[in-house]
Amino acid sequence: SVVEEKVYRSPIICILGHVDTGKTSLLDKIRHTNVQGGEARGITQQIGASFIPVENIKEQTKAFAEKVKMEFKLPGLLLIDTPGHESFNNLRSRGSGLCDFAILVIDIMHGLEAQTIESINLLRMRKTPFIVALNKVDRIYDWKPCVNTEFKEAIKLQSRAAAQEFDSKVKETIAALAGQELNAELYWRNKDIKNYVSLVPTSAHTGEGISDLMLVVMQLMQKRMIEKVVFTEQLQCTLLEVKVIEGYGTTIDVILVNGSLNEGDKIVVSGFNGPIETTIRSLLTPPPLRESRIKSQYIQLKSIRAAMGVKIVAPGLEKAVPGTSLYVVNDDDDIEKIKADAKKEVDNVLNDIDTSGVGVSVQASTLGSLEAFLSFLKKIKVPVGNVAIGPVHKKNIMSAAIMKDKDPKYAILLAFDVKIEESAQQTANDMKITIMSEDTIYLFEQRLKDHFGAIK
Ligand code: GTP
Ligand code: NA
Ligand code: MG
Question: I need a surface site. Which of 101, 351, 412, 451 has the fewest CB within 10 A?
């Protein structure tokens, strides 16, 4: 009898952790690129997806993959970076909601921090299995880098003091994780992967432990979770970002979790003014090992199979809503039913935004960053009167100016990571409306304190 071979998709793996623990740097090291250096003050504000083909993983781990007799069955890994800044709970939540598995990054010198614990809780809530990357081992005093060596061998090459410090940092982390009711153990000592979380020491600077990390993830996926990544034609696709790209117009970045997409497919996506029905004009991916966030020569594909991050070019995407699903309309599908489903999703998100009453005007680049910004403003107790997404236009200044009559101190517009049109700036000057413009959330904090402190 013929046994049908199962086809596997790449697992989607989310990188989570406290701010500045080295999530993006680890990805950079895996990809051999430098995304972190190009970010606004090194802070990740969006979710990016990177596909690591299995050939690359084989190459990176060849120094000791033979020893562990690893047979690679998966086509690769799709890694999703998330921001660690406290205000981006929604993006962490969205990233962790998409993934099959996660890498929780902890700074070995800092141990557990606020968003480490938040991340653990997110993963628990969604029952997502994960491992821990204990990053920045190179910061241990007198640590000697030993790249391309299994980590347990690298320890043997350290001075007594360095090995001791490493040991005590690991013990502290294990104890702190126990405090969160998690059993944890260094991966090479972990004989019970079902009940113990594996710790993989890494350095994004020297590259130690990166091969170990790749191998441990692959092994866990293949041993314990392979059924979860069987490829199916049932479409599962989430919209991450809406972006205007020179030469292409408005495009959407999506994560194709399962199924496939083709050029010419009729699709429905959620829009701010109702569902959008359109047709895929082109499917673009960055070359392998590049991240979809980074501008690069795109590769145009006729069709694409999960799991993959892909940029879709189609007319009428200007009002598409990040964080919602993308649907493909086949000949025998009920399009009205699909549109109703799409509308329900966006209603749920917008209902969470309460902008009634008097307060500042807020503008952000995506729904995701708007949500994050609103949660930050709520925390620092700044009321919000208006919200909008995209570049600041004259009409947005006019809306902000309405607050002049209601309560003049709220007649300001907070422009978070968005462009300000020249005519808008002119109108703001004429009407004496302050525009506060910053590209990271926390920079607003002091400015808002100054503004409201000065007025009180
Ligand atoms: P957010 O996205 O803002 O949450 O931060 P992140 O977790 O992506 O951290 P990022 O990669 O931006 O790194 C933060 C800082 O730590 C940068 O200055 C990095 O150069 C540094 N860093 C990252 N990994 C390592 C490491 O392994 N060793 C050392 N010494 N520094 C590191
Ligand atoms: Na950072
Ligand atoms: Mg980052």
Answer: 351
Q: Which of 28, 20, 42, 132 is nearest to 86 (CA)?
A: 20
Task: Determine the Cα–Cα distance for residues 226 and 219; give it in Å rounded to an integer.
Answer: 10
pLDDT tens figures, 403-449 = 999 999 999 999 998 889 999 999 999 999 999 999 877 789 889 99
Q: Is 231 exposed, middle or buried (0-12, 13-18, 19+ CB in 10 A)?
A: middle
Q: Copy the structure tokens of residue 320.
A: 């598409």
Q: Does ipTM exceed 0.95?
A: yes
Cβ–ligand 1 contact at 138 (below 6 Å): yes
Q: What is the C-alpha end-to-end distance of the chain, expressed in Å?
A: 82
Q: Which residues surround ligand 3, an ion (CB under 5 A)?
A: 23-24, 44
Q: Is 441 in the pocket of ligand 1 (CB under 6 A)?
A: no
Q: Whose CA is nearest to atom 5 of ligand 1?
A: 20
Q: What is the pLDDT of residues 229-282, one digit of tens each?
A: 999 999 999 988 888 888 899 999 999 999 999 999 999 998 877 899 999 999
CA distance 412 to 394: 13
Is the Cβ–Cβ distance between 234 and 261 less than 8 Å? no
Bridge partners for 282 per DSSP: 313
Q: Which helix (H) or strand (E) covers residue 385, if one does? A: strand 384-389
Q: Kind and range of the H or E element at 410?
A: none
Model pLDDT for residues 336-383, shown as the tens digit of each residue:
999 999 988 766 655 655 566 789 999 987 766 777 788 788 888 999
pTM of the full structure: 0.80
